[in-house]
Amino acid sequence: MAINILFVENERLPELQVGKLLCNSRFVNHSVVFGLEEVSEALLKQSYSHIVCNITCSKSQLSYLNSINIDIPLLVICNSDSEIDVTNVNSLIIKEPLSYKVLFDFIAKKPIISGATLEEYAMGDQDFIDQMKQLIIEEFEDNLAKIPLYLTNKNFKAVKSNMHQLIGKFAMLEMEEAHQLSKRIDTNILKDTDKEILNVHHVLFDVEIALSQLKCSA
Amino acid sequence: MKCIIIDDDQFYIDFLSKYCEKVKIKIVGVYQNSVLAFQELDNMPECDVIFLDINMPDISGFDILNNKPRTQVVILSADDSNAVKAFDHNVVDYLQKPFPFDRFMRAINRVKENVPKVNIIEKPIVAVPKSYPTREKVIEKDGAVFVNINKKLIKLDVNDVVLVEAKGDYVLIKRANSENLIVHSTLKRMKEKLPEDSFLQVHRSFIVNLKKIVDIEESTVVVNREVVPISRGNRATLLSRLNVVN
Q1: Residues A73 and A122 in one domain
Q2: Final residue before a domain boundary, out of A50, A79, A108
Q3: Residue A155 is part of a domain; what is its CATH number?
Q4: Looking at the structure, do residues A97 and A141 belong to the same domain, yes or no?
Q5: Are A125 and B9 a contacting pair at CB < 8 A?
Q6: Which of A134-148, B73-87, B113-127, B204-218 reaches the highest mean pLDDT?
Q7: Which domains does chain B have, with CATH numbers?
Q8: Residues of chain A neighbouring B11 (CB-CB closer than 8 A)
């Protein structure tokens, strides 16, 4: 799944909440608009996987949120105690502040993995499925621990090797975007390193989400 | 039947081991370290097939292939980019990870075709006649193609044929909706009999049905669900026969 978040902020503050949130975490694709009235236009321009709204809970904002009839998971950050009734079934409402964990859990709610291929290839053998899932979990944990260190140490040969091994697992879990990206990184990272580093971060973010979903299903 | 697995990826070692276990193929050696596998190539336990990963650190699968292992080799790879090069090393088959069990079994059947007296319990996917005919094998009558299998003429629906693969003195005819056939004939003879407008030889060992082509890469073509290598010289001819939008 291509993670691309539309953040809706209240006003142009010098330090945006989103900026603080993302600077020390994964390199998540995102855009920021200021005010709910800009949402429709932003959605016309490109597609987003998630929307995060930082609102003040005024009546007009609430009624606008209720009028948004889109099938995109919506996270509403609200500083008020007033009850919010957002009919969007994908919505999640929290009070400030927005932490990386809350954002991650919200994103990870949308399934990015499928067990269909694994189940088909294992021919219904549950032990086989469980064993394969456990191996993937261990490898993903290892990837999340080691690949950032390889990037820091500029050990791109090791990044390439790890990406290569991930290709088959992404195919097994039907993670199409991560599959394509990892193939691309495997081919290009040693010759076009700077360009591919961002893709490595995108893959790692997908690995992190997939890992959380695998652990839930294991 | 006995096999050796050489792959640096523990996941696929376990995956393959499980498939082997299902058809009672005994694993007599596992090498996760390709350097060690390379060093021990001459002293490996006897086996019928080596499952060999291509992309491994330090020593690649091709380094091992270049050292001419005495056993038949089935390649394991995350992508198909090395397929032509691998087939040039006379590997028996090329499995792209991940692969389903029936695809694995096809590879095993290919190994079996070259290994006498193997003891596989699984029902073979390829319908091998008990005795092979000795006289003319492919007969064309009124536009239809008949193949002689076990002294019986069987009408071949050419529209159902996916590809024809050379197998020594025989050809393997893979069909989309019927079981595969092995006929005592040559690729040249099949080429003469199959309708020219629908079939093309894309490799010295393969004729493919153009109508069944799903996609074409630099060095391979997917026909129905089969990945077939394309010889460099045949690629241009293949593209000229297809309706390509540039």
Answers
A1: no
A2: A108
A3: 1.20.120
A4: no
A5: no
A6: A134-148
A7: 2-114 (3.40.50.2300), 127-241 (2.40.50.1020)
A8: 132, 135-136, 139, 165, 168-169
**Does the beta-carbon distance from A168 to B101 stay under 8 Å?**
no
Question: What is the distance of C-alpha B131 from the center of its chain?
Answer: 22
Best probe of the A interface among B11, B23, B81, B97, by most A CBs < 10 A, is B11
Determine whether the interchain pair B55/A171 forms a contact, defined as Cβ–Cβ distance below 8 Å.
no
Cβ pairs A/B, distance under 8 A = 47
Please judge whether A164 and B14 are an interchain contact, meaning their C-beta atoms are less than 8 angstroms apart: no
Residue A18 and residue A103 in one domain: yes
Binning pLDDT at 50, 70 and 90, where does residue B21 land? Answer: very high
Q: Looking at CA atoms only, how far is residue A196 from chain B in angstroms?
A: 19
Rounded to two decimals, the ipTM of the complex is: 0.75
The residue segments making up the domain with residue A144 are: 116-217
How close does chain B come to A129, measured CA to CA in Å? 10
Structure tokens at B197: 């407008």
Tokens 């499952």 sit at which residue? B51
pLDDT digits (tens, 9 = 90+) for A150-162: 999 999 999 999 9
Question: Tokens representing B216?
Answer: 């074409």
Q: Which residues does chain B have within 8 Å of residue A169's beta carbon, measured at their own beta carbons? A: 11
Query: Can you read off the two tokens belonging to residue B74?
Result: 């089935």
Neighbour-count burial of A122, counting CB atoms closer than 10 A to its CB (0-12 exposed, 13-18 middle, 19+ buried): buried
Q: Do A122 and B18 touch (CB under 8 A)?
A: yes
pTM for this entry = 0.63
More confident residue, B155 or A113: A113
Cα B61 from chain centre? 18
The CA–CA distances, whole Å, from B58 to A58, A126, A163, B18 equal: 63, 36, 16, 27
C-alpha A213 chain-centroid distance: 12
pLDDT in tens, B183-226: 878 898 898 889 888 999 999 889 999 999 988 888 889 998 88
Least confident of A60-74, B4-18, B191-205: A60-74
- Domain count across chain A: 2
3-class DSSP assignment, residue B199: strand
